[in-house]
């Protein structure tokens, strides 16, 4: 079984919350849907219905993911709130949640990309580390 960095980060965050009698806010985000073709969408095709379907699918998957995370927190008897941030890059969503919720620590997964992959895809963890005013625990 392969465990995703988000799963590992959730486990680490719940353990940290248990040790400190803290509550957690579990955040997931979905990137804005990009057509890759500028303002015109998919060229001459009206892509609005495709974009709506993609965003609905993203929202459904986020709801499923957050329900599973909440169940894990409930099983550990840790107070948790879930937050879905659509149309935002993960780093932006985490920083917005940090501000709104006045959180004192961030626990997040990192894919651990290096070299060319990191250059192309960027690092959401590095972005959060660069802009966070609170401690950040990254889990690979």
Automatic annotation (TrEMBL):
State the Gene3D superfamilies in the record.
HUPs
Q: Which domain of life is it from?
A: Bacteria
| InterPro entries given in the database record | Rossmann-like_a/b/a_fold, Universal_stress_UspA, UspA
UspA domain: from which residue to which, for each copy? 7-140
Family classification: Belongs to the universal stress protein A family.
Do you know which PANTHER family this protein is assigned to?
Answer: STRESS RESPONSE PROTEIN NHAX, UNIVERSAL STRESS PROTEIN HP_0031
Q: What is this protein called?
A: Nucleotide-binding universal stress protein, UspA family
- Tell me the organism: Devosia crocina
């Amino acid at each position: 079984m392969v465990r995703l960095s988000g799963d590992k980060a959730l486990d680490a965050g719940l353990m940290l919350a248990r040790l400190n009698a803290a509550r957690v806010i579990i955040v997931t985000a979905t990137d804005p849907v990009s057509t890759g073709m500028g303002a015109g969408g998919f060229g001459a095709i009206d892509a609005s219905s495709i974009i709506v379907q993609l965003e609905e699918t993203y929202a459904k998957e986020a709801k499923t993911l957050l329900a599973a995370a909440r169940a894990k927190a409930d099983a550990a008897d840790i107070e948790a709130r879930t937050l879905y941030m659509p149309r935002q890059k993960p780093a932006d969503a985490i920083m917005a949640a940090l501000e709104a919720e006045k959180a004192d620590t961030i626990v997040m997964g990192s894919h651990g990309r290096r070299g060319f992959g990191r250059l192309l895809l960027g690092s959401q963890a590095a972005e959060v580390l660069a802009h966070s005013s609170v401690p950040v625990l990254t889990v690979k």
